[in-house]
């Protein structure tokens, strides 16, 4: 799952438990829809990408730079204290929001397409809640 700075899901994919998360990095980035700003063309990519040590591969850092995205990825083998925890908690909170949906916390669905549909529905509900919350605070 890739989220914005507030934890709103932007894109989500479903993979087998034996696949490394980093294999989904580029497909997730490609799946992020254009994001409208105040004026001008919609943004098609984030400025920064924050990720944990599981994404610390030079190959992916280079690919992110090529796309004009600054990788903010914790280094493997380096003691904790990089400061990324200040922003990474947003992703963990989003996963906690997903786990409020029991059908996602414990996978009952055998068919991947049904589980993917439930995952996308849950992300839509989370996004709706985020919109409501931000709208209520703005007005």
Written overview of the protein:
By secondary structure, the protein is mainly alpha-helical. It has a single domain (2-35, 42-136), classed as Nucleotidyltransferase, domain 5 (2-Layer Sandwich). Helix content is 45%, strand content 9%. It has five helices and four strands. The protein has helices at residues 25-31, 58-66, 85-99, 102-105, 112-138, and strands at residues 2-3, 9-11, 48-51, 70-73. Strands 1-2 form a two-stranded antiparallel sheet. It starts with a strand and ends with a helix.
Q: For the largest sheet, list the strands in their spatial order.
A: 1-2
CATH class: Alpha Beta
Task: Determine the N-to-C terminus distance.
Answer: 30 Å
Q: Which fold name corresponds to the CATH topology?
A: Nucleotidyltransferase, domain 5
Query: How does the overall form come out from the CA principal axes?
Result: globular
The SS-based structural class is mainly alpha
- The ordered H/E elements are EEHEHEHHH
The count of DSSP E runs of length 2 or more, i.e. the number of strands, is 4
Give the second-level CATH assignment, the architecture.
2-Layer Sandwich
Number of domains: 1
Strand content: 5-15%
Kindly provide the radius of gyration, computed on alpha-carbon positions and rounded to a whole number of angstroms: 16 Å
Helix content: 40-55%
Uncertain residue ranges? none
* Average residue pLDDT: 82
Helix run count:
5
The description of the largest β-sheet is:
2 strands, antiparallel
